[in-house]
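In the previous chapter we treated chains in isolation. Here, by contrast, the input contains four separate entities that must be folded as one system, with a combined length of 432 residues.
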Amino acid sequence: MAIGKPSQDRRARRHEATKAEIVDAAWKVAREKGLAGLSLSDVAAQVGMRVPSLYSYFASKNEIYDAMFAQGNDELIEFIKDRQANLPNKPRERLRGGFRIYFDFCTQDPVRYQLLFQRTIPGFEPSEASYAKAIEVLRLFRDDLASIGLAGDQQDEDLLTALSSGLVDQQVANDPGGDRWAGLVDAVADMAYDHVTKKQRRRHQATLGPQKGGQA
Amino acid sequence: MAIGKPSQDRRARRHEATKAEIVDAAWKVAREKGLAGLSLSDVAAQVGMRVPSLYSYFASKNEIYDAMFAQGNDELIEFIKDRQANLPNKPRERLRGGFRIYFDFCTQDPVRYQLLFQRTIPGFEPSEASYAKAIEVLRLFRDDLASIGLAGDQQDEDLLTALSSGLVDQQVANDPGGDRWAGLVDAVADMAYDHVTKKQRRRHQATLGPQKGGQA
DNA sequence: GTCTATACTGTGATAGAC
DNA sequence: GTCTATCACAGTATAGAC
């Protein structure tokens, strides 16, 4: 990078700043009119432009969705790193923390949740670069699971994602902005922890062969 | 009802038949283009009409969504009644069956699931009559919970809906048409059962006061 | 009663003037 | 880089032919 005259650099920065402004406006409109209700006219009005001018910054409406998708995942990555640093080390409490991180992030902005985790916009597929950020999020969660000693088992991971997303799903769909399912997060995390560790113990015993105190 | 000449009755039936045909066409289009991608032009083409002719049967696109919403709930009510009749009576197995009923229905048609349980179409609110059908579905599930002895506790019900919808959510979003989460249904139902019954036992003990063998 | 023809509005997108 | 003009197509609405 860093080619050409300095003025080109300034222009590029200005260009990026305007793009960011447009994305911010898109979030605002989406929160007001619904994610699928996003219209370029509203976005343009919000930033004080005409609709065609937007096309100097994004080639299509889906490219705006894609920028929102990327930004949302960046926010999540930041959010996870921040809060994972303050988690307790005891496995059960740490898993609770992980559930709480995901629940808090998703419920604090349902529109963002819809874009990042539900596939409801027809024709929108995240670009490769944006999708990579979503994979990075998964990696962060999986690494933390490993630090608890819960990793490598696809079924266990699927169980954990199902339980955590179920809480979010109900909260967002049936009580958006409320806290009806928030109080269940710890209990569900504990259920998940008990289930997965019990399974691990069974598996461990099986490798040792039948022992006294095994299953009746 | 039953006013006027018999020919009016025939016409009314024809009218209803055409409405049903339009709704069927709408489902077909929605499954191809996505729920939010439903367009009246596609629907009209599907039934061999011009777009404005649809307005003889439905006052707006949202009324078509509403008819689909009502029909989807009717299907679910039928589905539940059919399968609840064949459920075992033992509580644990019966709860498993309830989870399975919901999971099977939702995953066998993701578009229907999106319309019935996720609020993603901007501006669409089910009519009072259609919403009543959704309430009827809830009532059927709740009545069956009562037959197992798990009823009346809002938190328990919220937990059950969260766990069951989490499985569906992950299955539909990440492996549509597949079975990656299907194998976890029984295990999750058992976790839910254990959690809720354990809670009930604790509550029961509390009303009796401290006893020998109580919590350490 | 049912459908067609026509028209109005809004939206995503492109071309070309400045 | 931003605008005007324009296009294609959507949802919506109504008047009128049959």
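The helical segments of chain B are 6-33, 40-47, 61-84, 91-107, 110-117, 128-148, 154-174, 185-208. Chain B has a mean pLDDT of 91. Compare these points with the single-chain example from earlier in the chapter.
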